[in-house]
Amino acid sequence: MSTQPIEPPVEAAAPPSAPSPSAPLFAGQGLGCIRGDRVVFRGLNFACQPGDALLLLGRNGSGKSSFLRVMAALVAPAAGHLLWQGQPVQDDREAHGLRTRYLGHADAIKPVLTVAENVSFWVRLWAPEVADVEAAVHQALELFDMGRLADVPGRFLSAGQKRRVNLARLFAAPGQVWLLDEPTTALDKASIAVLEDQIAAHRARGGIVALSTHTDVVLPGARAFHMEDFSPHREGLAENDDDDSAFGWTEG
């Protein structure tokens, strides 16, 4: 894909040195993302309070996945600041990792581990404070009617089953911020309904959700971001520019 020379976005002003009492819980100011010599998005601002939701829309290559990775602090923004309670996330990335749950569109399923072992691994990694891991895993799997497959190795699962296991780890170890990249891929209508119910419950508890999707998802009161609005390259967006494989990454 040919690209035109570009200038990087101008850095936003330095974040405040102390949190404001009225500051949003989770926010981004003037966020920009560059890959190679191409600006993926720029000038993106968001502000979330407990219970808020963001819906990321746009064609492949428009920056949906990149935005989620920036929110998860997996990728540093090329411009702007990511803030938690008014303080830069980069000041304590470990704390941000414990509060966020990022699920990429590639299912993080280890083929040699059983369904239960796959979910247990993530619970222990994400939420070491969970006292009864087995019970948490069982409850999460039952949400998707996957308890009967708890002892089945991951390599035998269908695409839809892998996606449900991927989501089950989210419910077994729920963090404060859910960052979901195409979570409805390969799900049937019943499973999508379960996901919508769990997202609603998470928000009711004060959780924050940001998700990208190409399908209809019930997300009442969500703020929609049309990612093309933040891209200087609306035409000719590459099909693989927003894939994990384009970064050379796979989750898990």
From TrEMBL:
GO biological process: cytochrome complex assembly
Domain ABC transporter positions: 26-252
PROSITE patterns found in the cross-reference section: ABC_TRANSPORTER_1, ABC_TRANSPORTER_2
GO terms assigned for molecular function: ATP binding; ATP hydrolysis activity; transmembrane transporter activity
Disulfide bond found in the keyword field: no
NCBIfam families according to UniProt: ccmA, PRK13538.1
Protein name: Heme exporter protein A
